[in-house]
Design the sequence.
């Protein structure tokens, strides 16, 4: 029986607003700016389709005129003496490390163009996040400095060294302090350099701080167990996961690693064994992790501490004070159920919290100790070294500078003028320091206040190393010579401290050959090839919590009361958080990241104030209304409202990482800076406060990608509960009752004798993170179009991830199934979410192919839908006839149009382009090619090696980036291929299969681990 469940992409579709109805009448989602196309007049004009047809006779004339452009002339110089390792057209691969993760860098003729995961990294060989995929663009950023600066003027390194050494000698003679301020430094060689520098200048201290801090966890572990470490979490060993506002699939600590662990207990392999972990999420704003939870309970920020006290009392039978949740009966019911299940899963469960409060994390430690997590799902002996910042030390630094005790300060991979809680106080204190040196690649907010900018190279131009876990080491090696006159910060410190070895490459090598390689029996060349060294793990110990929690409970209760000042109307509890694209804002000038839609809101190029639908109604705000957000310190910013289902009533959320003022053309003045809403108290940074909202009377339309197309309520998403799946593996897939189909191609049957390239996507594995989108963009030269173009529905992404909401009934907890029931639903806080990657389906009966008048889109003998760009004349008939709406039209030459100069339109940045993929010109349609260049490369490699293609030889860019392994590509004609087996699974269905276009991509039903007890939570 076909499901009649109702899914909706956004509130405008659910409520069928007049604008939504009107837009759905149009043949295409985006308007036709034909005057712009012909005259290149600007981006503000819109020409109605009827006028367009009237003037230009069905568009062929317009496209012909648009194609009449002068082709630029490029002079090429051949190699006279070609480097031995460079073969034009054949890529080279080098291992390196990005933010502690070992990666593989693809270079073509000396240009790094793509980042992949390093397959040699063992259990850490998970996929890459969006920032890693986009990081190659940072190498070619035109906003970077070309030479070092001294007193804001370009200088030579010799003059800069002379100046800095002179100032350091003065500082040493005066006896004043020297401070090196950095984000968490997990490089053993860099730490050794800092130690050597401190030996030369004994008043030196290394201050580590992170804009998004984990000091609370580190201090709590020190207090609880005598180990000041960030634990290694093992989500793969947890049958039950309970998270309190920890976005562990997104931005919390190590999202890609946790995703791989989490999905290993929920994907098709686990389900086939009849096993699936269970996940409860208690949180304020709708996070990526919350959208993937089996059961999600919205709670206020002020309720998080009391909820943990309630859970602890229920598990241990204690009677700690402060466990009162007020009117949140759903949370109270859920906590009782969670407590019962945690006790049933001792040693196989895990409780995590996203709080940075020491008391809160201490209570979490007590809970995990009571349920036997230490030694199984939590490992304190093989610690995570990604974050080692100390919030108190940074706060004390400001005091030291104010007292005039600091003579010199060095900033390494840190930008406190932007991300400190009180930027003005920090800037005023900094002005009292004689020598201020920034190791930065550009004039950013902090370096603008410094005397010296010792410009540093990109990590793809650098030597270095990383130690992200106890016993796990990875190498950083350059893939290209420094493009500009830059020098690594470590080398500068070695020179300024008169080190015996001043070449940082030699320093790193010496350090490895002396301290790391002998322990594992490897050589330096081994490391350069494999990229990693993995020492045997230490034995994992079980730890018992034995502290009194009375003071902890009192502290939590006081913090909760301090937050609970909202009146539910214009005074709300504000949660500031890291978004998936921007994180802490360090990569804000990366256009690929700015245009990556937020996985939940689908907003690009901006941050916003997220409030619940009921809250918007109570406060009197509509979507896109601009409001002033003001906290008790007087900090205020203006942001547009986004109505977000699932947001807790009485709360609001704002993303960090935006509002940069000195980062570059793409990132300057995008969104507003929310870091001033972060506060420092009780020794750590707090990311929650109380704010007052005031309307400004203005509106600002956000650039969203989600509701640009409508599926008219058709059966796109299919899901079932684990209980139903175990009874019937085809539950929810619709495979028991197939539609009758009609075939227009009965006389055109042919057999695919070679390969039949297809894809399977496991909806139970896909978390919606968006890494695949950026990987596709980088691999296939997909242009960035900017905020205004996205507003006009002209984003160019070949792959999108559709986010669908569905209701949970307040009375039964069942998912609401009928449209008439939707009309009576009022609780938009209680929704379920499904993420669905959507790309060209490469249909065997492709409707786009039958309507193209010039055969620009045709079918290949191995099952792919091809695009011949040179044939395309831009009628867009194919896009109109595509039921999946996955085709993109080039309204402009986005790679060569001066109006898009903020993004990628310059010769230097275009060095990132993949030479195996043609850049498309104006007037041409494009869509997913199924990475045809990778397919051809795989075939040629097998041919040269005189062997047949093997399953796994060819991986798509999206597939390779996915930590969850949700995307599987291969040959359907090979019955033993992984994709062939998955497409034969009872869970597999095809989107819109009833129209018989015979798509080549199968989807596997979403399975939720819910039962009658979890449904009672919402009753």
Sequence:
């Amino acid at each position: 029986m076909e499901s009649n469940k109702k899914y909706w992409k956004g509130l405008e579709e659910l409520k069928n607003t007049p604008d939504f109805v009107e837009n759905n009448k149009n043949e295409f989602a985006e308007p036709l700016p034909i005057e712009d196309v012909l005259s290149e007049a600007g981006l503000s004009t819109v020409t109605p389709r009827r006028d367009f047809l009237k003037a230009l006779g069905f568009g062929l004339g317009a496209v012909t005129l648009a194609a009449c452009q002068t082709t630029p002339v490029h002079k090429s110089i051949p190699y006279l003496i070609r480097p031995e390792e460079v073969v034009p057209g054949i890529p080279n691969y080098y291992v390196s490390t990005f933010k502690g993760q070992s990666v593989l860098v693809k270079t073509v003729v000396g240009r790094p163009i793509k980042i992949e995961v390093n397959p040699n990294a063992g259990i850490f060989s998970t996929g890459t996040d969006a920032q890693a995929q986009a990081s190659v663009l940072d190498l070619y950023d035109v906003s970077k400095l070309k030479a070092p600066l001294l007193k804001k003027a370009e200088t030579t390194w010799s003059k800069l060294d002379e100046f800095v050494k002179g100032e350091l000698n003065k500082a040493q003679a005066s006896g004043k302090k020297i401070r090196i301020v950095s984000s968490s430094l997990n490089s053993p060689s860099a730490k050794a350099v800092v130690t050597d520098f401190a030996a030369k200048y004994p008043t030196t201290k290394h201050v580590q701080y992170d804009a998004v801090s984990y000091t609370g966890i580190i201090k709590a572990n020190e207090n609880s167990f005598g180990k000041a470490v960030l634990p290694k979490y093992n989500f793969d060993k947890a049958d039950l996961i309970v998270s309190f506002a920890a976005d562990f699939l997104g931005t919390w600590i190590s999202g890609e690693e946790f995703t791989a662990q989490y999905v290993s207990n929920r994907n098709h392999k686990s389900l086939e064994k009849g096993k699936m972990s269970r996940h409860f999420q208690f949180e304020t704003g709708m996070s990526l992790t919350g959208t993937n939870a089996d059961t999600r309970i919205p709670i206020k920020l002020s309720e998080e501490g009391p909820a943990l006290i309630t859970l602890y009392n229920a598990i241990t039978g204690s009677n700690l004070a402060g466990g009162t949740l007020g009117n949140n009966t759903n949370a109270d019911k859920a906590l009782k159920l969670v407590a019962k299940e945690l006790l049933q899963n001792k040693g196989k469960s895990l409780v995590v919290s996203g709080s940075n409060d020491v008391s809160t994390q201490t209570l979490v430690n007590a809970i995990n100790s009571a349920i036997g997590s230490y030694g199984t799902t939590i490992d304190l002996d093989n610690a995570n070294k990604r974050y080692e910042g100390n919030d108190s030390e940074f706060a004390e630094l400001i005091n030291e500078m104010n007292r005039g005790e600091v003579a010199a300060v060095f900033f390494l991979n840190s930008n406190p003028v932007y991300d400190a809680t009180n930027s003005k106080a920090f800037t005023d204190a900094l002005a009292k320091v004689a020598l201020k040196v920034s190791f930065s690649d550009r004039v950013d907010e902090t370096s603008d206040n410094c005397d010296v900018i010792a410009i540093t190279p990109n990590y793809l131009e650098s030597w270095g190393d990383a130690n992200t876990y106890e016993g796990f080491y990875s190498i950083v090696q350059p893939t290209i010579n420094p493009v500009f006159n830059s020098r690594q910060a470590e080398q500068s410190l070695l020179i300024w401290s008169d080190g015996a070895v001043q070449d940082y490459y030699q320093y790193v090598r010496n350090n490895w050959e002396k301290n790391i390689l002998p322990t594992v029996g490897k050589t330096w060349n081994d490391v350069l090839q494999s990229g990693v060294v993995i020492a045997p793990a230490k034995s994992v110990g079980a730890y018992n919590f034995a502290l009194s929690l009375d003071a902890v409970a009192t502290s939590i209760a006081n913090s909760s009361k301090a937050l609970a000042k909202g009146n539910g109307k214009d005074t709300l509890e504000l949660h500031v958080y890291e978004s998936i694209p921007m994180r802490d804002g360090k990569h804000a000038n990366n256009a690929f990241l700015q245009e990556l839609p937020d996985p939940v809101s689908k907003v690009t190029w901006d941050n916003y104030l997220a409030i619940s639908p009921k809250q918007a109604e109570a406060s009197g705000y509509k979507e896109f209304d601009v409001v002033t957000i003001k906290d008790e310190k007087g900090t205020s910013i203006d942001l547009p409202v986004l109505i977000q289902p699932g947001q807790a009533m009485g709360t609001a959320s704002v993303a960090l990482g935006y509002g940069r003022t000195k980062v570059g053309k793409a990132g300057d003045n995008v969104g507003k800076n929310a870091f001033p809403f972060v506060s420092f108290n009780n020794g750590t940074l707090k990311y929650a406060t109380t704010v007052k909202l005031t309307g400004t009377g203005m509106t600002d339309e956000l650039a969203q990608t989600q509701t640009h197309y409508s599926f008219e309520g058709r059966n796109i998403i299919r899901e079932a509960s684990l209980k139903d799946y175990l009874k019937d593996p085809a539950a929810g897939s619709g495979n028991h009752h197939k539609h009758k189909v009609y075939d227009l191609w009965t006389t055109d049957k042919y057999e695919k004798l070679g390969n039949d390239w297809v894809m399977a996507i496991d909806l139970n594995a896909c978390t919606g993170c968006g890494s695949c989108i950026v990987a596709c963009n980088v691999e296939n030269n997909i242009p960035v179009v900017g905020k205004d173009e996205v507003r006009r529905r002209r984003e160019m992404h070949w792959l999108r991830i559709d986010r669908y909401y569905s209701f949970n009934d307040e009375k039964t907890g069942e998912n609401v199934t009928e449209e008439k029931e939707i009309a009576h639903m009022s609780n938009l806080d209680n929704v379920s979410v499904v993420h669905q990657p959507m790309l060209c389906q490469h249909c065997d009966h492709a409707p786009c192919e039958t309507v193209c008048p010039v055969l620009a889109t045709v079918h290949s003998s191995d099952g792919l839908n091809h695009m011949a760009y040179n044939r395309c004349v831009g009628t867009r008939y194919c896009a109109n006839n595509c039921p999946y709406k996955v085709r993109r039209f080039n309204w402009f030459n986005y790679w060569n149009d001066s109006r898009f100069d903020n993004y990628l339109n310059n010769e230097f940045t275009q060095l990132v382009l993949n030479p195996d993929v043609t850049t498309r010109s104006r007037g041409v349609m494009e869509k997913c090619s199924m990475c045809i260049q990778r397919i051809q490369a795989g075939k040629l490699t097998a041919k040269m090696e005189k062997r047949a293609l093997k399953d796994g030889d060819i991986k798509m860019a999206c597939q390779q980036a996915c930590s969850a392994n949700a995307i599987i590509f291969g040959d359907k004609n090979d019955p033993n291929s992984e994709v062939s087996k998955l497409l034969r699974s009872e869970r597999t269905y095809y989107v819109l299969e009833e129209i018989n276009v015979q798509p080549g991509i199968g989807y596997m039903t979403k399975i939720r681990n819910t039962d009658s007890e979890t449904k009672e939570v919402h009753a």
